[in-house]
Design a protein that fits this description.
Elements lengths: L7 H13 L11 H40 L4 H10 L6 H10 L1 H16 L1
Length: 119
């Protein structure tokens, strides 16, 4: 039985990998073997970083809230503790947006947290 070397299935498989490698640098986008290796590694990075993105954004929000809190004379941890004791349930993304876009509303939250901590 003759060996198939130029069949459509083989071309489709290679074309699919090279399409995924479009935009890569040098032979990583041109040669099948190097493109295949890079595509596999890129897919691993993509999977890992979809989870990591959530961590990165949370730490960014916390840094922004912390900076705004320190401007008001309170630490981040005491601020969050004050909000929890006051039963103010608001997530860090919303707090971060408040600190940036509506500083007066953020000041009100800080004052509520400070009042709760004093009691």
């Amino acid at each position: 039985m003759p060996r198939a070397v130029d069949g459509t299935r083989r071309k489709e498989r290679r074309k699919k990998i090279l399409e995924l490698a479009k935009g890569y640098w040098g032979k990583r986008s041109k040669l099948f073997r190097t493109a295949k290796d890079q595509v596999m590694k890129s897919l691993v990075y993509a999977y890992r970083d979809r989870r990591r993105k959530k961590r990165d954004f949370r730490s960014l929000w916390i840094a922004r809230i912390s900076a705004a809190c320190r401007a008001e004379g309170i630490t981040y941890s005491r601020f969050i503790n004050g909000l929890q004791r006051a039963n103010i349930l608001i997530n860090r993304k919303a707090l971060s947006n408040l600190a940036i876009q509506d500083p007066s509303a953020f000041k009100i939250l800080v004052s509520k947290a400070k009042e709760t901590l004093k009691v």
